[in-house]
């Protein structure tokens, strides 16, 4: 029954492609979250993210959503030392010269999620297969655009980037996601065990555990705070300043803080919270701005 329900849902979503962003979100949102979408008077965090997509469009958000252009934004804020090394950028995968790349690296497209190839040993890869996959990704309309209706990704000039592989020395690479409201970090989402069974924990900025499940299981209140928590809170605040809401993703590998990405629509605003308390609390933190559009 579960498989049939998923197939039916995917068929329904297929017919959503040509309709307006507002109508698409009104259709998809309750199916994904179980919440009714009141776009005129949103209350929860997920509901307000839908409003944010439709009615707040700052051109700087396009640069920040672009995994290549965001490097310039981070540099302009004085945090270039947090960036991984960039080995190259390409408009076509056929332009990649693997012979000049190090043994370990990451290839990704700059406009989508899940379009990453992690290379740990260059000598064991199939270069033709990798190039074919990357070129296919370049041609696709990202899920964020046709399904999530995240407008900021629509106008990104697509390219492939090759970056430094973050070596966590065999330990789990923990992803610290700082939810910031008007430039102030308020909630920390910790993503762990991505290779063995993704788990997510939530904390406040004092590292007090918040009992909430969001898409993936929690790991429970057994995770210690990162070494550079205070430094990361300052970085997240600085990088999110000027936006009504932004999520700043950082890594803390041993003594070093590393920039991950900056996003404005966590899980497209489609991720369920169980119980719903955190969804409601984050909604109360999210002060919606005046409507803003790009001329």
Explain the overall architecture.
The chain has 295 residues and is of the alpha+beta class. The protein has nine helices and twelve strands. The chain has helices at 2-14, 21-33, 45-55, 59-65, 70-76, 127-139, 143-146, 229-240, 277-285, and strands at 86-90, 105-109, 116-119, 160-163, 175-181, 184-192, 199-204, 209-210, 213-214, 245-253, 256-263, 273-274. The strands form three sheets. Strands 8-7-6-5-10-11 form a six-stranded antiparallel β-sheet. Strands 1-4-2-3 form a four-stranded antiparallel β-sheet, with helices on one face. Helix 2 packs antiparallel against helix 3 (45-55) and helix 3 crosses helix 9. The protein starts with a helix and ends in a 10-residue tail after the last helix. The relative contact order is 0.17. The model has no long low-confidence stretch (mean pLDDT 93).
Instruction: Going across the biggest sheet, name each strand in turn.
Output: 8-7-6-5-10-11
Broad structural category: alpha+beta
Helix content: 25-40%
* Rg: 19 Å
Number of strands: 12
Q: Could you spell the SSE succession in H and E letters?
A: HHHHHEEEHHEEEEEEHEEEH
N- and C-termini, Cα separation: 47 Å
Overall morphology: globular
Mean pLDDT: 93
Which stretches of 5+ consecutive residues score pLDDT under 50? none
Q: Number of DSSP helices?
A: 9
Question: What about the largest sheet?
Answer: 6 strands, antiparallel
Which strand-content bin applies to the residues?
A: 15-25%
């Amino acid at each position: 029954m579960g498989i049939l329900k998923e197939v039916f849902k995917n068929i329904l979503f297929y017919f959503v492609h040509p309709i307006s962003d507002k109508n698409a979100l009104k259709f998809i949102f309750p199916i994904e979250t179980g919440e009714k979408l009141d776009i005129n008077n949103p209350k929860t965090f997920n509901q307000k993210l839908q409003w944010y997509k439709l009615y707040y469009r700052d051109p700087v958000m396009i640069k920040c959503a672009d995994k290549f252009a965001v490097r310039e934004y981070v540099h302009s804020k004085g945090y270039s030392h947090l960036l991984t090394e960039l080995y190259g950028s390409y408009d076509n995968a056929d332009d990649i010269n693997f012979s000049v790349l190090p043994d370990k690296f990451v290839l990704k497209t700059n406009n989508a999620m899940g379009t990453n190839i992690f290379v740990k040993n260059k000598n064991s890869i199939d270069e033709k297969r990798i190039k074919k996959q990357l070129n296919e990704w370049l041609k696709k309309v990202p899920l964020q655009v046709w399904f999530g209706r995240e407008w900021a990704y629509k106008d990104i000039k697509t390219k492939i980037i090759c970056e430094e592989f973050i070596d966590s020395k065999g330990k789990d690479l923990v992803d610290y996601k700082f939810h910031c409201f008007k430039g102030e970090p308020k909630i920390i989402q910790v993503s762990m065990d991505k290779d063995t069974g993704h788990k997510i924990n939530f904390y406040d900025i004092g590292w007090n555990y918040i009992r909430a499940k969001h898409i993936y299981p929690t790991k429970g209140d057994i995770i210690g705070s990162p070494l550079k928590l205070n430094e990361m809170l300052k970085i997240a605040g600085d990088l999110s300043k000027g936006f009504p809401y932004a999520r700043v993703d950082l890594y803390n590998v041993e003594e070093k803080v590393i920039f991950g990405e900056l996003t404005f629509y966590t899980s497209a605003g489609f991720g369920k919270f169980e119980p719903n308390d955190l969804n409601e609390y984050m909604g109360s933190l999210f002060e919606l701005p005046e409507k803003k559009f790009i001329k």
